[in-house]
Amino acid sequence: MRLALYAGTFDPITRGHLSVIERAADLFDRLLVVVAVNPAKQPLFSPDERVEMIRDAVAGWRNVECTSTAGYVVELARARAARYLVRGVRSCTDVDSEIALADMNRALAPEIETVFIPAHPSLSEVSSSRLKELARLGEDLSPFCPPAIAARLQQRVATALAGEERAHV
Asked: Is residue 57 part of a domain?
């Protein structure tokens, strides 16, 4: 059985991520989407919230599951007997950093291959950071994420903005 891991921060998951998941789910027998906890980032949602949102978004795919890890993704891949890591790429600007990450993962776990899957071309500019920026501006998020994700993001951003306003009073 071909098991692949697709790891990222997913804060929150976007339609671009989902396009990579859809393609990877067709390529592999099982796909494990992994919320990777990165201490260098300040996420808007907790790992558990991100896992819950992803589980809801991928519920239509029988061969896709979701979990989180605070450790190295290659160690989780080994523990789950996965042979592949999926990396989504949006544009050529992603390629250099993704190749560097693939090289590091290969040094740590040479038995695990990295597979690059581009997001759908119409979604190549969609990122979680951009999605959060659009939410802060009150823009329509429907082209960039599922409605349930948009609702949670808008609520979280509204709460954060209200907290910032209270702090400045």
From this structure: yes
